[in-house]
Amino acid sequence: MADVTSTPDDSHRSSSPPPQETAAAAGGSQHVEQLRKMLFRRMLVGVNDGRYFLGLFHCVDKQGNILLQDAVEYRSARHSSPSPTEQRSLGLILIPAACRSSCHVDCSVEGSMSLLSL
Q1: Secondary element (H or E) of residue 86
Q2: Where are the domains of the chain?
Q3: Rounded Cα–Cα distance for residues 70 and 3 (Å)
Q4: What is the DSSP string of 22-68?
Q5: Type and span of the H or E element at 110
Q6: What is the pLDDT tens value at each position of the chain, 118 positions in all?
Q7: Burial code of 77-96, b = ≥16 C-beta within 10 A, e = fewer?
Q8: CATH 2.30.30.100 fits 40-118, yes or no
Q9: Sheet holding 100-105, edge to edge
Q10: Residue 113's CB: how many other CB atoms inside 10 A?
Q11: Cα torsion for 8, 14, 17, 22, to the nearest 10°?
Q12: Residue 28's beta-bridge partner residues?
């Protein structure tokens, strides 16, 4: 049977995280709340090759990849086509952060200003 004893160093430890971790978590939760307000809003995402995707914002992961549902792809048509852009329905898509060149959310001016801090 092992003997469990407390040392003087253990007496000052508490279960709460250090102040800098608490501040980081509080800042992170503000960003999470802002992202929750964007859920299921229309989002237009541009990628490096000139295409645009319009869909409902579904989620974003830690790496910045965006999931859009009911997405439609828009791209420049060939010169021989009468329409300046072509479109096709895609459904649920993941747009990698490395490919993204722009991102616009359909929301109020106040909402747009608060998203600039993300």
Answers
A1: strand 85-95
A2: 40-118
A3: 61
A4: HHHHHHHHHHHHHHHHHTTSEEEEEETTS-EEEEEEEEE-TT--EEE
A5: helix 109-115
A6: 444 443 444 444 444 455 555 545 566 788 888 888 889 999 999 999 999 999 999 999 999 999 999 999 999 877 666 668 899 999 999 999 999 999 999 877 777 666 666 6
A7: eeeeeeeeeeeeeeeebebe
A8: yes
A9: 85-95, 66-76, 52-60, 42-47, 100-105
A10: 10
A11: -130
A12: none
What are the tokens at 109? 């001016």
Contact 103, 52 (CB under 8 A): no
What is the residue type of 41?
Answer: R
Chain mean position to CA 30: 13
Tokens of 46: 């541009």
pTM summary value: 0.68
